User: Fold this.
Amino acid sequence: MLQVRNGEGEMLGVLFERYHAPLSNLYSRIMGNRTASEDLVQEVFLRILRYRQSYQPGTPFRPWIYQIARNARIDLLRKTPQRQVAFEPEMVPPVVPQDSAQQAQEADLLHRALMQLPEEKREVLILARFQELKYEEIAALLGCELNTVKTRIHRALQELRKVFRQLEQGLGAPGCGPAAPNIPLRRQEQ
Amino acid sequence: MNCEEIAELLPDYLRGTLAPAQLRMVEQDIEQHIEQHIQHCAECRDDVAIWKKLSLLPAEQPSAAAQGRVDALVEAYQAGRADGRASVAERKHAPSRWTFDWLRSPLPGLAFGLALLAIGMVAGTYTSRMAGPRSDDLAAVRSELTGMRQLVVLSMLQQQSASERLQGVSFSQHDLQAADPKIVAALLHTLRYDSSVDVRLAALDALGRHSGQQQVRAGVTDALQYQQSPLVQVALIDQLVEWREPGLTERLREFQQSADLNPAVRQRAQWALNKLNRD
Assistant:
């Protein structure tokens, strides 16, 4: 990043390649909207270029880029709040192990359960589970205490478990988040 | 251990980051306690199970289209750097609107700094001595300070060093509730002629805060056709889309037809047109 900050463009491709997939996944899982996710990743890379002078040499780069990513998403939600509850059936996990219909169904349910959590809980859970950020870094990113992050993760996990069980039993959505989209469970597409 | 105690430890247990100091136990002991509890508590066991189950969610790969856009952005950036270097020579021929060239020499610069310090001290002493300052006196001091700030910003935007010009742009945004016309004009000039892409982008950001002014919106809109750096072109498109300037669709269509437009910029213009049509 230091080289990019100093205007050496050659490292830019390497940097973007390293963060493209993690950021795409982060946005897809939080927002459930692939088009918006891809636009946002592009926006993050643009912001990195625009604000590269604000990166402090010697400080960890990962939290810096995640802060930019979070700000970009918040800005998008502020401008178009309706996207917050957007749900695209296409976002249901597209790739599943070929020999396991049950796993495909579980992944499908899990995705739907995740999308029913309030965004705050979904965000902290996804940051903790899928991104290589320490809890301290997540706390700094969200602007809260370390213990608060751990408490939120635990509560998010409890709620996810409850929603998942209810979906599994065909009981529909509980009283939180947007209503469960009425879409059929997708099996693996050969 | 009960569920409450487990809840505190579970996030670290799940990621394998349990710290032995947490319970004055060695790590294996804590893990053992948690696992014993999990065996007997269905809810906590389910929490662990759902965490593990999350691995079923597949990692997506960016689509080819998204990858193409990012590649184009990298190319655009590199083209922009080359453009920036080339435009240093051009900048020397850019029309100058400055009347503070004398500030570039070290001695007058130092004198100017000392004058600023003196004015600051006089203003400070003046205001602190007055037990109950009259509002018109305070307004006069404030006006004087605003004038000095304006002078400093204008001189900083004239500096040879890009980082000092960047500071000038940053300084222009301090405490300016209403945009000063001279500073706005200087920022618009910077946006159009500065040799550094970074400074031009910073000027655009600063101008973005004064979107209520017609002069700003018109200046930023006009800047699009003169801008050569793909990165700045993209930033300008984003800003104009945010402002929803009347007639923007037509302008973007015209801009998109430019013969030597960078592919990433062309894509961004198309994205902007789609967005304007969609919203």
